[in-house]
Amino acid sequence: MVNLPVSSALIGRGGELSALLGAVGGATHTVLIAGEAGIGKSRLIGEFTRRLDRETLVLSGRCPEFGSDGVAFAPFLAVMRRLLRELGVAEMAALLPPQPALANWLPQLAVHTGTAGPEPDRIRLFGEILTVIEQLAMTRQTVLILEDLHWADAASRELLTFLVANLADGDVLLIGSYRPGDSGPLRELIAELRRDPGVRTLDLAPLTRHEVGRQLAALLAREPEPALITTVFERSGGNPLFVEALSQAPDQIPADLADLLLGFQRGLTPPAHALLRIAAAIGSPIRHDLLAEAVDLPPDALHEALRELVTRQLLLTTDTGYEFRHILIRQAIYNDLLPGERTQLHSRLADVLRTNTYHSGNAAELAHHAAAAGDFTVALGAYWSAATGTSESVSGPERLAYLEQVVALRDRVSNPDELLGVSKLVVLEQLTECAVASGAIDRGIAAATAALDLIDPSADPARAAHLHLRRAFLRGSTGAGPGDDLTRALSLLPAAPSTLEHGEALAQFALTTVFAGNPNAAAPAAYTALSLAESLSAPALVARSHAYLGLIAASSTAADSSHEVVLRHFESARAAARAADDPLVLLDVVTWESAVLLAAGEYRAAISAVRVGLRAAQQSFRFAESAPILLVKWVQALTALGRWAEARVVVDEAEFERLPPLSRAALLVSYGKIALGQGDTDAARSYAGQAGELLGDGRWAIPYRLQRQLLIGSIAIQVGDGVGVDSALAEVWSLGDVMATLEAHPHDAWPVLALAARRCVAHSEIEGARSAAVVEGMLALGDSLSCTSPVDIAHREVFRAWRAGTAAGWDLAVRAWRGLEQPFEEAESLLGMAEWLAVQGDRDAAAGALGRVVELAGGLSAEPLIAAAGRVATRARISIDGRGGESPKVRESGAARTFGLTARELEVLRLVAKGLSNRGVAGELFISANTAGVHVSRILTKLGVASRTEAAAFAHEHGLLG
Questions:
Q1: Cis before 285 (ω within 30)
Q2: Rounded to two decimals, what is the model's pTM?
Q3: Is 804 exposed, middle or buried (0-12, 13-18, 19+ CB in 10 A)?
Q4: Residue 885 pLDDT > 80, yes or no?
Q5: In this structure, are residues 493 and 503 in contact, taking their beta carbons and an 8 Å threshold?
Q6: Whole-angstrom distance, CA of residue 577 vs CA of residue 9
């Protein structure tokens, strides 16, 4: 008998092994290992883990074959179950919040902690997993290994993305392996992850001829002949697994890969060969008790056959049984079975599982083998038992997969309702609820739709309403909105709401309706939701209802919708959110509050709300999802306040590239406004062009499209290009149903109307009937467009001042902008007022206004305004406090040498010197932990130091902490 040759030497992977070991505790937080099947990914990972310090915690999970069609989160389920076994329920619970979402994965934990409820937030689940890993890493180096990611399901890919974005501290290293040729949906994710500086990829190339020779020498325990090396190298293609197979019989090279892998069976005794075939039918891993029951061998013969397979390295031992040395070997053996042989083996396994009581907890395994044997009646009943049983080992994602099998098998048996004791509708309802709990959005929508097709709404309105609400929730989770499900559900529910679910539906309907531009229709639903929430003592719904009422009041021109009413609603919303003790609810509230405050011109309050929101985003692990809109509001508020230098560093380059396209476009428009104000028209054009490439045609993009056209028109005004202004205004006018669009967005429409009014007096005659018609239409709209905030009123005063051409009109605009603390707009209006004061002969007042223009513009480095003030002073022969139009000089800084560190990197360095972790730095600077890690890595490189401790010492020594 010839044993399967397996060498303990790792050949040809010294560089990759060094890279893995070097990543432990370093700036790299993720290593992705790519290579074809058999190339040695698992072998490399195994050697790496053997060389780690014994105190290192290694957590491993593997994506099952064809996992994209099976259990969601499969590799992470394995990791969390391993942790639960190692830590115990009590210690695991101590790492988690009350009623954790992870309890839906770990029923043993749910007994101790309670569950998160029927609609756990997926990001909350991800955050809990991150929290557990990071807290463990605080006491010991932790390595998380995820193998066979090419088989990862969609949910696992999403969780992987989250962890890569947030695991930034050096005490956690994530390692993933995958086959590039089989990666499918994973390809796009890998391409995205490769752009992260903290992610390193290792592409395992085939072995060279020399390395194949070294592997053969290790396998054969002798130096191979040159001809043998050449033959094996050419036939194996440098694949280590194939080299092992070929080394057994180099003179009998099979024709294809399957035959090559089947060669591993050569020389097996008949009992061992029979045992291996049953093991292939069971699949990997293989429980010893099931294998022993299924094979017809006496105990001594069984043990001898098992020893033979283990000695030959065809099977490897595990805690509870065995697993194949490589999945390709198992596939080759299974595929070599005749159809009848497969059916016979699966039938035997199903009989063992059904007739032996100690296998009673393996209903899912019974279902799998019964289905493979063609016994669909047994399979259907077993899948239903697995899905509805009380086993503590069955997770939510697994129940979902089992219920989907029940739906698929129902049509293949007779009398399924009688067999299961429930109708198809009940199964679909349970499937929908399980999908909601597991975060399986698309599968839940499909199940709810199928269930609704079976219901007569007139006969069972409550049941239909519940399914519509479930589908609305799932559709809303995709970002596409709830569709018409909310309306249908509310039409089916009783007129007098009495349940929390009804209240949530009303609140969601109110939010959807106010964003559709109909605040008056939204208000009754929001008030009803609020009343119900208060009666049910549901603070989270109270908070959201008040926030939506604040949005409604801010969008309405009704007499009872004053700004004081808006503020009262948000004050109540914040108080309720704090009572709910849910960061996610608080995040929702302050996100809407910051938008309302910004539109109202209360910029400092908006910034405070943004800071609260960013902290809540970090606490609820929603930074990547929720921070972008908050960062945009922060930059817009700073831009309005004239704090332009601050606005430009809120989002640094590393963070900017990770933002969604719409957020980047909004920021670019703000940057363009700053560049234009400071006289850099080329940069302003570039920003406007980049923003245009990012903006789509969706309704959420309309405000930013208006702002972009305003920027383009303003650039044209500044360079004296009247045709360019006309083109920008025409682009606005070409929006579908332009009057309704502008009336629905008055905050962004008023500046455009003011630009049209300026166009009439600032440049040459308007050319072309269409351009003239556009300007006339905008001027007419200015007589009727609503003003719902002080900012709208200020823009309206500018619009009127351009049209009236009086110092008094400009004075009203100056006062409006001064009250809003917007220095640039105040200076622009002062310039207009000064020109008319000079025309009227009031030289002293004009000089005072021009002096104030220079003062305000100087603080902003707004050179074009300073120059314009100088030109007005020259024409009117006015002295501007002895300064004329001279630009203030920027004095050289006496700051210490910064060694090439940017302002943001200096901030990070000072926090690192205080001992903050990457997540602590992120919390202080309102950036993601991943970005903080990137900054730390760059700081270490620029300072030429190896660790955070050395960086802190360097900073102290060179005075960088002042």
A1: yes
A2: 0.69
A3: middle
A4: no
A5: no
A6: 59
